[in-house]
Design goal:
Layout (H helix, E strand, L loop, with lengths): L3 E4 L2 E4 L10 H5 L2 E9 L2 E2 L2 H14 L8 H14 L5 E8 L18 E8 L7 H5 L1 E7 L14 H12 L4 E6 L2 E5 L3 E6 L2 E4 L10 H12 L3 E4 L4 H5 L3 E6 L3 E8 L2 E2 L7 H17 L2
Parallel strand pairs: 7-8, 7-14, 11-12
Antiparallel strand pairs: 1-2, 1-6, 3-4, 3-5, 5-6, 8-9, 10-11, 10-13, 13-14, 14-15
Helix pairs in contact: 6-8
The structure holds pyridoxal-5'-phosphate.
């Protein structure tokens, strides 16, 4: 069945949705995005995603195209129109379509392009993969220096996923100056002697909305957290490893560059954090 998507004020069947060939997102990757998950037909961490969207836009001299309340209404309308119980809402805002190609930004009154669509993923929360854990390889982090802005420049992360696939594993962790920055589409963590270790926030990584929630829940559960860079060797020698993102929640990592992490099975800290995250997020979903 065809989806109903949102394009610049209209709800249309996906086959009828159109964006100009001059769109800055298409020509220049001049746009930002958010992915919000849906559980039980409700939005997880919507406020966090709306705030990060505003920050990403503002860092690139773009304003929010509408209020967070209007954005929420569109998210809810798409969930309803497409009957989503578990899945994701993808939102993209670009600097619009000025009618020609030019490196210079278009005039400020050029309307931003706003597109949203749903991705139906039944069984997203009860993932069998989470019970096994995933395997990762390390790759060099050669992305640009403003990874805190959630831009649609995803070519290198896509290449990273393909490198992982070719190596017969699930994902890649990116490494810069000897330390892990993050996964291709997630934040990276290890657990050693009961302490959760994850890289501190900076322009080197995306400030994950799931990361913020998970670290808050970890602190509330009296778990120890250290925000600092870690190496691949430390990860291979850790008791546990895991990733977080809006679409995978908390996902155990059981192998890093061919070396088994801990017992090779999802560890208790990752399993507990996944449980707490899912429970608390469902309770707070809107
Ligand atoms: N890091 C990168 C590079 C990402 O692309 C993502 C999500 O797409 C994340 C981290 C996790 O962020 P969030 O928890 O907000 O989904």
């Amino acid at each position: 069945m065809s989806r109903i998507v949102y394009v610049n004020g209209d709800y249309v069947p996906e086959e009828e949705a159109k964006v100009s060939i001059f769109d800055r997102g298409f020509l220049m990757a001049d746009g930002v995005y958010e992915v919000t998950s849906v559980l039980g037909g409700k939005l997880i961490d919507f406020d966090g995603h709306a705030k990060r969207l505003e920050r990403s836009l503002s860092e690139l001299d773009m304003a929010m195209p509408m209020s967070a309340d209007d954005l929420l209404a569109i998210h809810r309308e798409l969930v309803a129109k497409n009957g989503i119980d578990e899945g994701m809402i993808y939102l993209q805002v670009t600097r619009g379509a000025p009618g020609d190609r030019d490196f210079a930004f278009p005039p400020e009154d050029t309307p931003l392009t706003v597109v949203l669509f749903t991705q139906n993923k039944p069984g997203l929360a009860d993932s069998p993969v989470a019970k096994q854990g995933i395997k990762v390889i390390s790759i060099e982090d050669i992305r640009w220096g403003r990874r805190d802005i959630k831009t649609v420049q995803l070519l290198y992360p896509s290449m990273g996923k393909m490198m992982a696939k070719k190596a017969g594993v699930d994902d890649a962790w990116m490494v810069e100056d000897g330390a892990v920055t993050e996964g291709t589409s997630n934040n990276a963590y290890i657990v050693k002697n009961g302490t959760i270790i994850t890289r501190q926030l900076s322009t080197d990584i995306l400030h994950g909305i799931t990361r913020a929630a998970v670290l808050r829940f970890a602190a509330e559960a009296q778990m120890k957290v250290e925000e600092r860079p870690f190496t691949i060797e430390e990860a291979q020698d850790a008791d546990e490893a895991f990733i977080t993102s809006a679409s995978t929640f908390v996902m155990p990592v059981v192998e890093v560059d061919g070396a088994t992490v801990g017992t090779g099975r999802p560890g208790p800290v990752a399993a507990r954090l996944r449980e707490i995250y899912l429970e608390e997020s469902r309770n707070a979903a809107i």
